[in-house]
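Final report, closing paragraph on structural work. Over the funding period we assembled a curated collection of sequence-structure pairs, and we close with a single example.
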Amino acid sequence: MSYHQLYYQTHREKIIAQAREWQKQHPERVKEYREKNKEKYDILIKRWRENNREHLNQYSREYLRAHCVSTINGRIYDLKRPYPKNGCELCGRSRKLHYHHYDDANLMKGMWLCIPCHNFVEQIDEHEDLVKKYFKLRMEVCA
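Its predicted structure, as stored:
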């Protein structure tokens, strides 16, 4: 093993960090290089994607959860309310959250809910008249 290979192995993280910093400072040179060496760059990207398939799948799932709403007619990509850091907006549980929206035209009208709360809210939305009757009857009985 040559001196340069040994040096790279022992200082790999530092060398990569310096290269990334240089790329940030010289975006026009990076773009020029990539255009000039398109075939070589495409091969590198393809190899990276093959070696990092699980990472890409995880990123894809997180992106869809944060930016995509599934509707009856298909997916709608648009802005949603920000993903909450404290868990479900209804019960506060820290679980995987779904976005429950009310208006396809305005996706900001929605809330982040855990699966049990999302199922509960869907049932309430389907049977809103029964819920109103229940609370009216409950008020009469408990009064």
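The chain has two domains: 3-51, 54-142. The beta strands are 68-71, 74-77, 97-101, 110-114. We thank the funder for supporting this effort.
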